[in-house]
Hints:
The protein is elongated. The chain has helices spanning 19-35, 49-56, 61-66, 85-94, 138-155, 170-186, 193-198, 215-219, 230-246, 290-293, 308-317, 337-353, 368-378, 388-393, 412-422, and strands at 39-40, 46-48, 69-71, 77-80, 103-112, 124-133, 160-166, 251-252, 264-272, 280-286, 301-307, 330-334, 359-361, 382-386, 396-400, 408-410. The longest helix has 18 residues, at 138-155. The chain starts with 18 loop residues before the first helix and ends with a helix. Helix 1 packs antiparallel against helix 5 and helix 5 (138-155) packs parallel to helix 9. The strands form three sheets. It has an eight-stranded mixed β-sheet with strand order 1-5-6-11-10-9-7-8. Strands 13-12-14-15-16 form a five-stranded mixed β-sheet, with helices on both faces. Strands 2-4-3 form a three-stranded antiparallel β-sheet. Helix content is 38%, strand content 20%. The protein is of the alpha+beta class. A hairpin with a 7-residue loop joins strand 15 and strand 16 (408-410). Histidyl-adenosine monophosphate is lined by residues 83, 85, 113, 115, 120-122, 125, 127, 129, 131, 259, 280-285, 303-305, 307, 309-310.
Amino acid sequence: MAHTLQAIRGMNDILPTDTPLWAGIETIMRNLLNRYGYQEMRVPLLESTELFKRSIGEVTDIVEKEMYTFNDRNGDSLTLRPEATAGFVRAGIQHGLLHNQTQRLWCMGPMFRYEKPQKGRSRQFHQLNVEAFGLTGPDIDAEMIGLTARLWRELGLTGVHLQLNSLGSAESRSAYRDHLIHYFEKHYEQLDADSRNRLYRNPLRILDSKNPQMAELIAAAPLLIDHIDAASASHFEDLRARLDQVGIPYTLNPRLVRGLDYYNRTVFEWVGDHLGAQNTFCGGGRYDGLVAHLGGRSTPGIGFAIGLERLVLIAAASGLDKLSAHSPQAYLIMVGSRAEQQGMALAERLRDQLPRLRLTINCGGGSLKNQFKRADRSGAHYALVLGDDELASGKIGVKPLRHTEPQHALAEAALVDLLRQIST
Ligand code: HAM
């Protein structure tokens, strides 16, 4: 017997019972971004492998272990995007959107990382990615964080917290790098294989090791925030004052370094109480050097990404039911081929007149009893009935399904009035 085909491990189907929550959240996000003046830009799922190596960094978990990389038929190395920032910068340079301009952009879609699947972690996952280019000051940092805070409020999320840090400039980071190497050299025996491998290549990445046996050693390591340059420190102070002013609480987390190499200055993450081990559901920061690093003219950037799977988990745990599935308001039952023909036309007239009406028509025939069962299962409030009697009288049968009123017959105009009342 042939085996049943299954989805690839870590690549999840999002079933119709869940899509209303996803779609509801997506609508709220799109509206909010529109209100803040952000524009949508869509970039490809596939990019050259080189792009991700150069932007995310060669010595990172993503590039070393997690990318879906393959050669295409032409022998070119391509990678399914593990994140969207690199693609945005590539597209921005390619289309001349960045130099001497201000851009506020977003995209939504799937990302791919070969990680170990667990709650809140999959191999295909979805992000809302938001980026701003051409702005150096802390005002845009505050705007971005404010936008996320408003989004959680509008979604009614509970148990979410902001963590903040500054990574300083590239130069101050390189001085810090030396301190870090010195510190970890002194404790070389305690380093795991990954960390030994990274010690001289990218010691900062040791700090986001997920190995619990490394936790104590990492906790005692020198802090980056103690080594940042004066300009970055004042940028950070200004950002904090702005957050205080608009009343967005945060925790300073000097251990927050993010897992990608392109960041400088402000970095932030939102963590959720409802999530368990994978508790970061939104993360981002500044990347003022990335555009120049990828060959464009120097342009500052800042952005963040929200992990939608994790956001949906928090939304569900916060009791977000107002976005739940919408059943049809009416289900049209048609008995006989003449009724089916006339019913289709009736349904189209109702849809013309009542653009908000959710109407399902019965397809696939069936007895009256059978169709009533389907109408009931659909969750509709009313069954509309077209059979021989109704065709003869020129009226439509109306049977409330959620209380015990008897069926009655209405002329089409009266039916439109009734449905108008329930479909606003
Ligand atoms: P990231 O921290 O790698 O940042 O990912 C952002 C978010 O994507 C995470 O906080 C998490 O919610 C979600 N995420 C990541 N990996 C997975 C996974 N395997 N399964 C489910 N969710 C996941 C970035 O990607 C940066 N590009 C963000 C950014 C934009 N920075 C500046 N601009």
